[in-house]
Design brief:
40% of the residues lie in helices and 15% in strands. The chain has 14 helices and 14 strands.
């Protein structure tokens, strides 16, 4: 018997986030690589989860999510995006955004279908497309003349869309660049897909972390786009609790029906006491997510001020909790090699951008997470300013 496995993902290795976090732990470096906050979830939230943990909420939750949480999600969506969701047919609670993305791609993509993603693209998209038998088509984001801001290339995206295009995956607020969409961008997207049969998958896990008074323009907010969209969101990013793996998919009923066919056999249901606790907290503390942009903008501004004397070039991030730094005046070393070397030699871990791209147009840029306490940011910035 030949026990060798013919891999379904022969070109996939260990994700860069695992590699860099492991290297940071191994070397004792300050970990500004993997995107997890350096502070705890709000106490009122963990108190509610603990209460439900000790008061009977320990059996299977309903497959779509507990009703209280779906109602809380609907209320938040109505409040922020003006979209009235049917709690029974348009909301599904997921085991984190990653499961939501995987289930959505698996539900929609058939063998031979083409799926468009925008580079730099989060690294979970293409493996899911490949497992579904799809073909990935990559469209690079445009970079402005200063090399510091990114934006969808709508002309090129329109040129790539064809009769085989089944799905376009968008990620705004964008990880890793921090790019955001405007209302005009949504109109341009609507024009591109209006006469096509393709669907849209919108990764909006940083929906509450947009800076400088800019609004988040969700696909849920646009009537025409909504009819062909699945919107994936994350409570882990919102509540400083990435380890909880709790998110949701909002989609019209006809897409939710297909999504749930996969979701029920991928994970079936999500942690019951956590769902109850998050539902309670969303309803009683809406100011928490409303204040999140200010909280993270203060982190961004502090980190950028600390780096002002450095040799890095950068524009303050427009969203997320990541700052892109251009090290072109310091080194011409490839970003992945440099990120690993700096982790070992100077003790600060980051994420290279080329690993998210088919064509490495971001070769002198690294991503640093500023969702950390001030002391950690100050120590990291001190080291970086010495380069």
């Amino acid at each position: 018997m030949d026990t060798r496995i013919s891999s379904k993902l022969p070109n996939v290795g260990t994700t860069i986030f695992t590699v860099m976090s492991h290297l940071a732990t191994e070397t004792g470096a300050i970990n500004l690589s993997q995107g997890f906050p350096g502070f705890e979830p709000p106490g009122a939230l963990t108190d509610r989860i603990n209460w439900h943990l000790h008061n009977g909420a320990n059996q299977y939750a309903p497959m779509p999510g507990i009703p209280a949480l779906r109602h809380a999600i609907a209320e938040k969506t109505q409040r922020l995006q003006g979209r009235e969701l049917n709690v029974d047919t348009e909301i599904t609670v997921c085991t984190g955004a990653t499961e939501g993305l995987f289930s959505a791609i698996t539900a929609i993509v058939h063998r031979g279908d083409e799926v468009i993603i925008l580079d730099p693209a989060y690294d979970s998209y293409e493996p899911a497309i490949e497992l579904a038998g799809g073909i990935t088509r990559r469209v690079p984001l445009l970079i402005d003349q200063n090399g510091s801001d990114f934006h969808p290339d709508w002309q090129r995206l329109g040129d790539v869309i064809n009769d085989k295009t089944r799905l376009v995956i968008l990620n705004f607020p964008h990880n890793p660049t921090g790019a955001i969409l405007s209302a005009d961008d949504l109109e341009k997207l609507a024009e591109l897909v209006r006469d096509t049969n393709c669907y849209l998958l919108s990764d909006e896990v940083y929906e509450h972390i947009v800076f400088d008074g800019e609004p988040h323009h969700s696909l849920a907010n646009h009537d025409e786009l909504w009819e062909r969209s699945m919107v994936i969101c994350s409570f882990g990013k919102t509540f400083h609790a990435t380890g909880w793996k709790l998110g949701y998919c909002a989609a019209p009923a006809h897409l939710t029906e297909e999504f749930r066919k996969v979701h029920q056999f991928t994970t079936f249901s999500v942690s019951t006491p956590m769902q109850h606790g998050v539902a309670d907290f969303l309803i009683s503390n809406p100011e928490f997510y409303e204040d999140l942009p200010t909280f993270y903008q203060q982190k961004r501004d502090h980190f950028c001020e600390l780096l002002a004397p450095s040799r890095f070039k950068f524009r303050p991030a427009r969203s997320t909790f990541f700052q892109i730094l251009d090290y072109g005046d310091i080194s011409d070393e490839k970003d992945e090699s440099l990120a690993k070397r700096w982790t070992r030699e100077i003790g600060v871990a980051s994420i290279p951008l080329t690993v998210f791209c088919e064509t490495p147009f971001t070769a002198t840029r690294l991503r640093f997470c500023f969702a950390k306490d001030d002391a950690t940011l100050e120590k990291a910035a001190e080291i970086l300013c010495e380069l």
